[in-house]
């Protein structure tokens, strides 16, 4: 079906969009792209206090929603995980105004996924230019310096690049389930040194007299979310300042998306003292946040990595994406994965400077990824 007769508009809240129509476009079942997750961020006060203002793009044919792009107007670069602070500084030192900017991303979530959602009957070769034109119009009307599409899929990043957007490359570390039956099967694929290291770390964490609980669906109660939110906030106060996600939002997830959350909590007697939070997709477990009130040796690795890897093996989940950064993950069986972002800069002179920078940066990242091969935890990688 042709993409002609499509009307594109921008809205300031997903509350105005039918959930079933939006979710019908989320064909990959990405939990972060679900209507429930995105609207939950809006209604539970997670966005505007952090400078994220919804301005989602919708494409309709008649009354039918045929395409959408989650998008936000931003007055800072917090919670993005594609770092452009140096770009902003350079542009403003040259007399420009970098903020506001437009961002297509999942707030506070460095997870790869589709950024342009569309139905199977829509002609992408006609839709994509129309959506980019709509983005340019929003840039102009909002006096935005730029548009940034963060963590698109490989395919969509290439499509944006073919449409004239700049491409930026980065690296994360993911764990892949090679059809392991048990955690010991997984350890058996590792080099002896790494296998011994992980076993020691697990003994240290599990030998501290703590009770570790894996909680899903109805097993997660308000008491558990209350405990975890304390840990989550403590991490932010130590490292980044104000926490992004509210306790009300976490409780909301149990009602709106009961099959998605996974909590791994550690208790000392009757008191929870640490925990990690993940979200489950169809084929991927996404590690999101962690926190603790007391330090125990290697408890972070146990709650954030090893318990979740065991969960993936038991549930036949193909991949564990434990979040951004963390080179130390390589020694624990994670492998480097290229991630992408695409950028449209209104000022052509500044765009050319960014393009030159990206060429140099990409070469360095490729060399870095190549160098990681010798540090692999695996005896061999098939």
Structure notes:
The chain folds into two domains: 7-170 and 337-374, 3-Layer(aba) Sandwich (Aminopeptidase); 178-317, Gcn5-related N-acetyltransferase (GNAT) (Aminopeptidase), CATH 3.40.630. The chain is 37% helix and 24% strand. The chain has eleven helices and 15 strands. The strands form two sheets. The protein has an eleven-stranded mixed β-sheet. It has a four-stranded antiparallel β-sheet with strand order 1-3-4-7. The two termini are 42 Å apart.
Write the layout of secondary structure elements.
Elements: E1 7-11, H1 19-25, H2 35-43, E2 52-54, E3 56-61, E4 64-69, E5 72-74, H3 85-93, E6 101-104, E7 117-118, H4 124-141, E8 146-150, H5 154-162, E9 166-176, H6 183-188, H7 192-206, E10 211-216, H8 222-239, H9 247-256, E11 261-268, E12 271-280, E13 284-292, H10 299-315, E14 319-321, E15 335-345, H11 348-371
Parallel strand pairs: 6-8, 13-14
Antiparallel strand pairs: 1-3, 2-5, 3-4, 4-7, 5-6, 8-15, 9-14, 9-15, 10-11, 11-12, 12-13
């Amino acid at each position: 079906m042709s993409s002609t007769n499509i009307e594109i508009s921008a809205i300031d809240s997903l509350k105005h969009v039918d959930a079933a129509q939006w979710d019908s476009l989320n064909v990959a079942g990405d939990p972060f792209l679900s209507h429930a997750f995105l609207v939950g961020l809006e209604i539970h006060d997670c966005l505007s206090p952090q400078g994220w203002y919804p301005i989602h793009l919708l494409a309709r044919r008649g009354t039918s929603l045929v395409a959408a792009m989650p998008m936000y107007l931003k007055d800072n670069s917090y919670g993005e995980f594609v770092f452009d602070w140096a770009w902003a500084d350079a542009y403003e030192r040259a007399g420009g105004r970098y903020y506001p900017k437009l961002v297509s991303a999942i707030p506070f979530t460095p997870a790869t996924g589709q950024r342009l959602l569309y139905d199977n009957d829509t002609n992408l070769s006609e839709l994509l230019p129309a959506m980019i034109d709509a983005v340019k119009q929003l840039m102009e009307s909002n006096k935005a310096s730029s548009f940034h599409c963060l963590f698109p899929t490989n395919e969509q990043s290439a499509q944006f690049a073919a449409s004239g957007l700049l491409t930026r490359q980065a690296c994360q570390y993911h764990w892949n389930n090679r059809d392991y039956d048990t955690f010991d099967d997984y350890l058996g694929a590792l080099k002896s040194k790494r296998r011994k290291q992980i076993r020691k770390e697990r003994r240290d964490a599990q030998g501290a007299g703590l009770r570790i609980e894996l909680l899903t669906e109805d097993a997660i109660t308000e008491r558990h979310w209350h405990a975890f939110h304390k840990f989550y906030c403590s991490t932010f106060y130590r490292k980044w300042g104000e926490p992004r996600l509210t306790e009300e939002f976490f409780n909301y997830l149990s009602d709106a998306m009961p099959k998605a959350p996974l909590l791994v909590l550690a208790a000392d007697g009757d008191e929870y003292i640490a925990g990690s939070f993940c979200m489950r997709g169809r084929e991927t477990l996404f590690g999101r946040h962690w926190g603790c009130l007391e330090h125990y040796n290697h408890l972070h690795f146990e709650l954030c990595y090893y318990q979740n890897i065991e969960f993936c093996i038991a549930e036949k989940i193909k991949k564990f994406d434990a979040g951004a950064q963390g080179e130390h993950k390589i020694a624990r069986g994670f492998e480097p994965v290229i991630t992408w972002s695409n950028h449209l800069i209104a000022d052509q002179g500044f765009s050319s400077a960014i393009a030159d920078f990206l060429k140099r940066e990409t070469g360095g990242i490729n060399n870095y990824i190549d160098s990681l091969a010798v540090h692999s935890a695996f005896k061999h990688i098939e």
